[in-house]
Design brief:
Elements (H helix, E strand, L loop, with lengths): L1 H29 L5 H23 L6 H12 L2 H13 L3 H29 L2
Helix pairs in contact: 1-2, 1-3, 2-3, 2-5, 4-5
């Protein structure tokens, strides 16, 4: 149990660091008006979750799930930050942007997960 907990914690540190770097890069590239960094990590993280979901199951690697899926991807993806970004847009009176952000983030994240699983099933079938 303690080894798994340490594995999740180590993965979380890696994922959170990657999220921070992605947000810094997105802010430099796109500015601060729209939360691109959060949307990027949710889409990329969902894609990676789809790939790992298939690969770990097919290759007998479920022992790595706590580190990779709960730790790294849990630290990397930011649904709580997504919720806050949505509220911030809404409270700024940007209701259309908030709705667009929710629809695009959720839709593309779900699509990325499905595509990741589809690709992984094709590669590792």
């Amino acid at each position: 149990m303690i080894q798994t907990l340490l594995s999740v914690a180590a993965g979380g540190a890696i994922g959170a660091s990657l999220r921070y770097l992605t947000n810094v890069g997105a802010t430099r590239a796109f500015g601060v008006g729209f939360p691109m960094g959060t949307m990027i990590v949710n889409i990329v993280g969902s894609f990676a979750m789809g790939v790992l979901f298939v690969v770990l199951a097919k290759k007998g690697g479920t022992a790595y799930a706590p580190f990779l899926m709960t730790g790294i991807l849990g630290g990397f993806t930011t649904f709580s930050a997504f919720s806050l970004d949505t509220l911030t847009l809404f409270e700024r009176g940007e209701v259309g942007s908030a709705a667009f952000y929710v629809a695009l983030s959720v839709g593309l994240s779900l699509a990325a997960l499905v595509i990741g699983a589809f690709i992984a099933r094709g590669v590792f079938a």
